[in-house]
């Protein structure tokens, strides 16, 4: 079976445990740039958040089969949209565990690349808000919307988005 099918089966089993909605955050605690080999190192070496997002979308297919990552940019806002095929999960909670794990991991990598308290301007999930979502909102440090049309990280296209990252401050 494919890697995506194996991950889907694992997430299905994990969704049965208590506080399963926090598994994505717990997963991200153990992520480091080298978790994703050269791809992770490329991301944390990006010159700014814009190039981090662009590189993510451009090369994601090389490290993950079946999931699409799109980077959309307008004049005022950008988004990194995580597209999980519907066939992968039987229940919405399983999709949420996958999407929240991705979002938390990518934010951790962004914080490694920029500064430890970096946050996007908004995070959205297609899943209904869990009963206890305060830890999720605290982790992302920005508004978190549930029951959204997409699973995504949103960014203001501003000076910080395009600023050259100062890695001395993150060591």
Explain what this protein looks like in three dimensions:
With 171 residues, the chain is α+β, with helices and mostly antiparallel strands. The chain contains seven helices and five strands. Strands 1-2-5-3-4 form a five-stranded mixed beta sheet. α1 (3-14) crosses α5 and α3 (37-44) packs antiparallel against α4 (49-59). The mean pLDDT is 85.
Draw up the topology in text.
Layout: H1 3-14, H2 23-28, H3 37-44, H4 49-59, E1 68-73, E2 77-83, H5 92-113, E3 122-124, H6 134-140, E4 144-145, E5 151-156, H7 159-162
Parallel strand pairs: 3-4
Antiparallel strand pairs: 1-2, 2-5, 3-5
Helix pairs in contact: 1-5, 3-4
Poorly predicted tracts of residues: none
Helical stretch tally = 7
- Give the strand content: 5-15%
Structural class: alpha+beta
Kindly report how far apart the N and C termini lie: 40 Å
Along the chain, the helix and strand elements come as HHHHEEHEHEEH
Major beta sheet summary: 5 strands, mixed
Q: How many strands appear in the DSSP assignment? A: 5
Overall shape: globular
- Helix proportion of residues, in percent? 40-55%
- Measured on Cα atoms, how large is the radius of gyration? 15 Å
Average pLDDT value? 85
């Amino acid at each position: 079976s494919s890697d995506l099918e194996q991950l889907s089966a694992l997430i299905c089993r994990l969704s049965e445990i208590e506080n399963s909605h926090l598994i994505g955050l717990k997963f991200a605690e153990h992520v480091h740039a080298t978790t994703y080999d050269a791809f992770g190192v490329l991301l944390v070496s990006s010159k700014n958040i814009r190039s981090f997002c662009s590189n993510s979308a451009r090369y994601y297919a090389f490290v993950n089969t079946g999931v699409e990552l799109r980077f959309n940019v307008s004049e005022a806002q950008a988004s990194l949209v995580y597209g999980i095929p519907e066939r992968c999960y039987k229940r919405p909670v399983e999709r949420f565990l996958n999407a929240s794990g991705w979002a938390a991991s990518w934010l951790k990598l962004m914080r490694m690349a920029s500064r430890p308290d970096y946050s996007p301007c908004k995070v959205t999930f297609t899943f209904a808000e869990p009963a206890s979502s305060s830890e999720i909102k605290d982790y992302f440090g920005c508004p978190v919307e549930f029951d959204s049309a997409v699973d995504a990280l949103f960014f203001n296209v501003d000076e910080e988005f395009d600023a050259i990252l100062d890695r001395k401050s993150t060591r």
